[in-house]
Structure formats: structure tokens, C-alpha cells
């Protein structure tokens, strides 16, 4: 096992492996260089005359990266997309890259560890924001920011650093030649296909990076106005009988879900939210109060985060999540695990195709489940369920729990009817 790391030309470290791991220590003790793939690709691309653009931040980095890449390709510039992109090897792109090309990289904090180890930074760096995240990996926010800061820490004269206003002051605490530039707001007449003020801020960051690459204002506007949402980032899936379905399964922090709720809130409390998953030890108290203001129904997926919420409801020590127990609206249900971490459904019309149960005495919300979103089965939240069974207005059998929370199996029915309508 040890020989695998000591008797080789180099070691490529995965993102989940810490630099202080025994394997990395063994390689370095034997004089074997240890690299991370994205940083190594950026190093080779830069040395070949390619302009490297890197985008990081807790939220928005995928959208900004894709905006930059989309606009470059639309204007005919030779551009390549890599980094934290699902199903893509950044190193495999190197044979395609030529001098004068633009290499656009989405960079998470772990990939930026590799940049710090090589002491390199992209020519154009975009730092969208910094919010609490990955606190199940990092000991504190300072350590998290330190890895993120590698995106600009080793920039040289002539390089460009663009950042969101909220992170500017913290960036200035790092010793670097980079001078952060906060872009102006996007012109009001620019009409994006993305919803939410946060996406206009993302577009402003992308526009600033594109100007640094020499693009004309007209080309930037056309590129941003034709950009479609990235999959899983407040992505509009379709509208069925007045129900708008959004896939936001990459909203894995409270702040991201808050932004989505604010973007879709029409003041009518008509949002059905599917959320849950792994516990990242983040403060969710602000999110809970926003949910109470904007959502009429919440379905919680199985996971350690949901388990901690349930423990707090049953008298556990978590004060932040104890808020769940005291919220009178919306009602909460527990679902089975699924691939997505969250989703939003917004009712805008009177008609729809299937029902989700609500509180006793409240008219059920009608909607269609789409295959990108998990299809959870409702499980009892009370200590025990009664054996009482009844039928709703449509004649479907339902089950009631103490406290007036109605549990039924309409999700299966919705899935079946959705398939009959060609939605899956």
C-alpha cells in the first residue's frame, strides 16, 4: 500500500483527501510530487498561453461559470469549460487547448487547495460570496475562506479579481497584489431568463469577467439574455395546469434556499418545498422563519439533517432546529430519501392534476410531481397513528394522525398519473 505512493512519478490527490493524510505524507517524504487534477490542468494551460478564468464562492459559482462560457462560445471565442463540472475530467481537456484560448473553471474550496499547493491563481478570478458551508469538513470559517482565497492569493500584476460586495472587505485582509473589483448592478433593461435578484448579481459578476476578456457590451448583453438556468439551480422544469415546477436541488445551504424562496414568493404563500438531506452543521433558523412566511407545505427527505430536526422536536438539544416544532404553518411531513436535496413547486392557477395533503380542514394543494424531484412517501410524524380511515373529496382513502395532520399515499397516485401524462 505504501509503495503505491512512494514508487511512482506523481500522485493525483482527490478532493476528499486532506493534504495532511498519511498517504500524502508518505509520497512527499519519498520526494514524489502530489497534485490535484484541476490545478495541474490550469498550470499546464497557463504555461501554454491560455487565459485561465476561475470562479469560486459558496453560492452562484456554477451559474457565473456557465454564463461566462456560454457568452464566449456565442461570440465565437475558443473557450473550454472545466473544474467542478459533473462528468468531466479537466485534465482530459488539455490536448484540445491552444494558445489564445480561454479556460473557464468552476472551482470549489477543495480544488483550490491544489492551487494553493502549486502557488498559482487564475488570470481572471471571480469570488461570488462566502457563506457558512462545509462545516462538517472545515474546523471553522477562517479555514474555509483560506482555501477559497487561493483563487486570488497568487495573482500577479495584470491579473483581475472580481468579487461580490459582501466579500470585498474580507478579501482585503489577505496579502495579495490583487485589488478586488465590485461590479455595478446589471442594467435594468437587460432581461434575463433566470429569476431572482441573486441571479442578476451573478450576471453582473459574469459581465465584469467578460469585459476583462475584451468582449463588447452588446455581445455580453446578448449572451446573458440568452443564457438558460443551469440544471438544479432554480431551474424551471415546466408548468402543468397552473403549477410551476422548479428544480433547485443544488441549494444545499440555508442561504441558497432563502434566495430561491424570495425569488419565487408572490406574497400568496403558495410554495411547496421539498428539502432535507445530510447535516452540514449550519444555522437554519433564518430559513425556518422564511419558510413559515412563504410555504404552505414542506416535505422533508430522510437524512442526518432531518434526523437532527426530529430529535430537536422530541426534546433534543438543538435550539436552532427546535423552531420547527413551534411553527404553526406550514405543516411538515417526512419523506423517503431521494437524489435531489430540494425542490420548489409554485401554484399559479386554479387547476392541477394531483393532490398533496395539507392540515385538516384546509383545502389540499393540487400539483404534479416531476421526475427530477424525489417522490417521497409520507410517514407519520406523531408518536402513533390512529386506525381511522376516511376519504377526501376525490374519493381517495386517507389516514389521519393525532393533531390533525393528514397522511395519505397520494404521492404514488401522483407519480402514476404523472407517467400517464408523459411526465416521467
Would you kindly provide a written description of the structure presented here, covering whatever features stand out?
The protein has 424 residues and is an alpha/beta fold. Helices cover 32% and strands 19% of the residues. The protein contains 15 helices and 19 strands. The protein has helices spanning 3-6, 22-29, 37-47, 61-74, 109-118, 141-148, 150-153, 165-171, 197-212, 217-225, 254-264, 285-294, 304-313, 323-326, 410-420; strands at residues 11-12, 34-35, 51-56, 79-83, 102-106, 124-127, 160-163, 180-181, 235-240, 243-247, 271-276, 295-301, 332-334, 342-347, 354-356, 365-367, 389-391, 397-400, 406-408. The strands form 5 sheets. Strands 4-5-3-6-7-8 form a 6-stranded parallel beta sheet, sandwiched between helices. A 6-stranded mixed beta sheet has the order 9-10-14-11-12-13. The longest helix has 16 residues, at 197-212.
Molecular shape: globular
What structural class do the secondary elements suggest? alpha/beta
Q: Specify Rg, calculated over alpha carbons.
A: 24 Å
Major sheet strand order: 4-5-3-6-7-8
> Helix count, per DSSP?
15
**Biggest sheet record:** 6 strands, parallel
Q: End-to-end distance, in Å?
A: 46 Å
